[in-house]
Write a structure and sequence with these properties.
5 helices; alpha/beta; about 130 residues; Rossmann fold
């Protein structure tokens, strides 16, 4: 079973994304509203995919993605999707990719958009 970590300080968004992912029935989902607290789970569980909101308390999503990408703690490097409802222009998309994100999705994220992106990154035959 693939493991996915979802990090968003907006509990409603966090629960919505978790619900979308749980509806598939083949992912083990971990959630956090705080990027720093999520790091402990990320290092212990080594998720296959991490979905990170860009605007977080204590550490922003860009910095968190960079920290994960620069880590040598992983047996297999996780995929990263950065998300934001505020930072929507192409400069932020480019920064996300430079910081190590595989994809940048703009909120609101529709269920099929998220599930296709997850499936594609986890090589499950999905398409964006």
């Amino acid at each position: 079973m693939k493991k996915i970590m979802v990090i968003d300080d907006d509990v409603a968004v966090l629960k919505t994304l978790e619900s979308y992912l749980k509806s598939v029935g083949k992912y083990r989902i971990f959630t956090s509203t705080d990027g720093m607290a999520a790091l402990e789970v990320i290092y212990s569980e080594e998720p296959d995919l991490i979905i990170i909101d860009v605007i977080l308390p204590k550490i922003d999503g860009f910095s968190l993605a960079t920290r994960i990408r620069n880590s040598t703690a992983f047996e297999k490097m996780p995929h990263i999707i950065l998300i934001s409802g505020i930072l929507r222009d192409n400069a932020y998309v480019n920064e996300a990719l430079q910081r190590g994100a595989d994809l940048y999705l703009k909120k609101p994220i529709m269920p099929q958009e998220l599930l296709s992106a997850v499936s594609l990154l986890l090589m499950e035959g999905g398409s964006i």
